[in-house]
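Amino Acid Chain and Its Fold in Token Form
===========================================
Scope: a single protein chain, as residues and as a discrete description of its fold.
Amino acid sequence: labelled as such and written in the usual single-letter residue code.
Position: the record begins directly beneath this header, with no further notes in between.
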Amino acid sequence: MNAVIVDSAKVMAKGQITLPKDIREALRLSSGDRVTLICENNQVIMMNSAVYAMKMLNQGMKGEAEKAGLETEEDIDALVNEIRTEVES
């Protein structure tokens, strides 16, 4: 998200809010999508849950390719082909 979007939403009796359209579009949210809320220092950060999950996966996997000796695309292709051959056998 490049531009800062400032908007407001009213908190209803059951704690529900309606996300403004500009916010939904910026987060690429559709009806039924899930969001992740992170509360820190009296602020709430809201992220598309799919984006948050991928971000956490990337952080968790950081450095693993190097540990496994995968330095090039060819190394990755070779490993994938090796695993496919093992599975097919």
